[in-house]
Design goal:
Farnesyl Diphosphate Synthase, 2 strands, 327 residues, single chain
Length: 327
């Protein structure tokens, strides 16, 4: 194990312990049991790690930023609970979603509780950070909701552009990653110029992460991906790949007809190999891989401005590992 990997594992263990204690056992059990069920599911913990590493890069111990790290992870899980309701998803991380395991009203209330828990943890950041931490967290909440509604609106449109898609994922995915980095920097008392730089780094990480997610949905091996490959195709989602493919084929012909079937949600899993072959043939898969690399490198360039040290090295390694992920 490398020093950087060991460094990350130590921080991940710190985060896991704090997250496990983030929602205490409470009454009524019908609310607190499903909330704890959500937080017990192990995720990648990318967001809280970003918070701790940003703080450490500017000279603070990880414990100083730990409340912010817990806040962004709890908030992330709140969004997943409500997303699962909207998407009618039946499973999350290999377990039944809350609205399936319990019911939809319970899931709504669990999400609301988790949002409250997230804000409570923001309030536990150092006093010097609070005046700016709450506005940062509030703006993140608004941006994420904006991204979600745009994503929903895109499902009813046939003219979404790649530029509009990037704007949407900047809000839906990038905003919380940017917030995670900013909260860490605020906890450490980093200079103002560092906050703007980290915000932009988080947005670039979000772009790379979501475009890679779109790519993996079509190209991953099913056993590694953990869900049926091509789910986005069957659901007609306006992904980076679909929008790039639409811009790459003629306005008539078999390729256009296939993509329009996807847009109308008429495609099935039997069509996925043909959609993938089309995207390979017109260069979309290769351009998507290049887009992931481009936004990853842009994020790393931003992160190179952080003070040199093990935290910056671990942070850069974490971002690079996202580019190599298989799920």
């Amino acid at each position: 194990m490398t020093d950087s990997a060991r460094f990350l594992d130590e921080r991940r263990a710190l985060v896991e312990g704090a997250i496990a204690a983030s929602v205490p056992a409470g009454r009524p059990a019908g609310l607190y049991d499903p909330a704890r069920y959500v937080m017990e599911a192990r995720g990648k913990r990318l967001r809280p790690l970003l918070t701790l590493l940003a703080a450490e890069a500017y000279g603070a111990g990880p414990e100083i930023a730990l409340p912010g790290a817990v806040a962004v992870e709890v908030f992330h899980n709140f969004t997943l609970v409500h997303d699962d309701i909207m998407d009618r998803a039946e499973s999350r991380r290999g377990r039944k979603t809350v609205h399936v395991q319990w019911d939809e009203p319970t899931a709504i209330l669990v999400g609301d509780l988790l949002m409250g828990v997230a804000y409570d943890h923001v309030a536990r950041l150092p006093a010097h950070a609070l005046a700016r931490a709450f506005p940062v967290f509030g703006r993140c909440t608004a941006r994420l909701c904006e991204g979600q509604i745009l994503d929903m609106e895109f499902e009813r449109r046939t003219d979404v552009t790649p530029a509009e898609y990037l704007d949407m994922i900047e809000r839906k995915t990038g905003a919380l990653l940017a917030c995670a980095l900013e909260l860490g920097a605020l906890a450490a008392g980093a200079p103002d110029d560092a906050l703007g730089n980290l915000h932009e780094a988080g947005l670039e990480i979000g772009r790379a992460f979501q475009i890679q997610d779109d790519l993996l949905d079509l190209t991953a091996e099913s056993e590694e991906w953990g869900k049926p490959v091509g789910g986005d195709v069957v659901e007609g989602k306006r992904t980076w790949l679909l929008l790039e493919a639409l811009a790459s084929v003629d306005r008539a012909g078999a390729d256009r007809a296939l993509l329009e079937r996807v847009m109308r949600r008429e495609a099935t899993f039997a069509d996925v190999p043909d959609v993938r072959a089309l995207m390979e043939r017109v260069g979309v898969l290769n351009r998507t891989r290049q887009a992931v690399i481009f936004h990853t490198e842009a994020a790393l360039q931003r992160l190179s401005a952080l003070p040199d040290g093990p935290a910056r090295e671990a942070l850069s390694g974490l971002v690079r590992s996202m580019q190599r992920r298989i799920r």
